[in-house]
Amino acid sequence: MTDARHRPLLAGTAVLLTTLIGLGVAQLALGRGSHPMLLAFGLTETVVSLVAGLLGLWAARRMPAGWVRRARGLFAVGCLLWSFGQGIFMAQDVLGLGLAATTWADLPFSFYYALAVVSALVHLRGRIRAHVGVRTAIDGALLGLSLFTVVWVLWLGGAVRVSDSPPGDLVVPIAYPVVDVVFLTLTLVSLLATGSSRTGVLVVLGGTAFAVADVTYSYALLHGTFETGGVADFSWIVAFACFALVSLLRPERRTGAVAPPSESWARLVPYIALLPAACASAWRLWAAIDRVVLATLLAVVVLVVLRQFLTVEDHRRLLATAEQQRGQLDTLAHVDPLTGLENRRRFGERMAGVVRSALLTGSPVVVAFVDLDRFKAVNDTLGHAAGDDLLRGVADRLRAAVRDGDCVARLGGDEFAVLVTDPAVQPGPLVERLRLALLEPFPLAGSVVTASASTGAVRGEPQRMVGDLPAGLDVDGQVAALVESLLGSADAEMYRVKRGRRVVV
């Protein structure tokens, strides 16, 4: 039994094949270029593009707001504009008014091409980084201009010179295949970024059919052989049928963020595009000055420079983001998230640096340990939120009680440490200063709480202490041993004070 999800695709494909076969049989019977066939092809292309536009708007309205909805809506409006232009073209064709290289129908056609590229950009930007989307658009333009330059030198330039149409009238139809290359490039990169899907494959098939139609149309127009009912018309019908089928398919759900596509191949695009364009331009300009070749070559060079600038800018932003993230990780690794004080790891690093410096200068080092008395009682009676407020308040008081160059850290729980490098500071006055800082009551959870702490401080001279260390230690070993000795002494002094007093909070 056929999967219900595939039924719209199968039904639409059957209608498309029936239409193409019917047009082909009718053309064989009535003759190419007959009024009935001009009307049949004109109506078919008008209707199929109109249906693609209306279905696109219907599908967009059913989608949640976002980049997919905006892209689908823009492309649907472009299809409606193409339908309007095709109606004008059909009227001119059926009435035998004579079709110039550029007519009023090309105005809505041009809007379709512009909206198609913009919708592809919007879709791509929604999936990957903005600069990648812009660079991809430039890549499409580079490939289109490079192809145009090569084709111009090998064939198109000569065809334009012998064409009956004024060169200015040929600019628009010649530009259509170039825009098709841009659209296909954007669509393919978006498909690579999001993964293969039925909708993506249908858009690529439609864009390819459109490019075939435009190339065929431009070629026939330049040689004065264009006639409705050829490959171009069949290809346009196939293209808009593919776009209509996209709107009939149920959107495929994707979970998680999509990573940007690998740019290993994309870095070569400017050079791949520039090389054939430069070779063709050099070959052409060697023989004679060709303003079209000069203009396209200049455009290619400007686009390459712009693309490289965007690449450098993107890398600069990436480096800035990495540096910012490195700073954030460094903060997380060295700062206590509750109080904003330095943590145990950072305090040990600061101690090692001060001890290393003191070994050279002979300066003393003063370390104090502060342990809140009966902190558990605050948590049990007022709640953990009040306990956290108390820890933050104690941290602020301790930080304000020392100099900016000194270090205050939270070692964990209700334990704090203070590192003082001022050689004039003595342990006794430091302990008293810290005690007075905590003397004023703390407002917590609607209550006023008086906090006290057991504080022990020691003063050590690393140059003198190093003589008591085991022999054979290198400088790093000496520093580590001295840090451990000072911290152990301060911790022991703090516990001596705690055992010798009884404090009620």
Question: What is the fold's blueprint, element by element?
Answer:
Elements: H1 7-30, H2 35-61, H3 67-94, H4 106-127, H5 130-162, H6 171-194, H7 198-222, H8 231-248, H9 269-287, H10 291-334, H11 344-361, E1 365-372, H12 375-382, H13 384-400, E2 407-412, E3 415-420, H14 427-437, E4 442-444, E5 447-449, E6 453-460, H15 462-465, H16 475-499
Antiparallel strand pairs: 1-3, 1-6, 2-3, 4-5
Helix pairs in contact: 1-2, 1-8, 2-3, 2-8, 3-4, 4-5, 4-6, 5-6, 5-9, 5-10, 6-7, 7-8, 9-10, 11-16, 12-13
Structural summary, described in words:
- The longest helix is centred in the middle third of the chain and has 44 residues, at about 290-335.
- This protein is of the alpha+beta class.
- Helices cover about 70% and strands about 5% of the residues.
- InterPro entries: Biofilm_reg_signaling (IPR052155), GGDEF_dom (IPR000160), Nucleotide_cyclase (IPR029787), Rev_trsase/Diguanyl_cyclase (IPR043128).
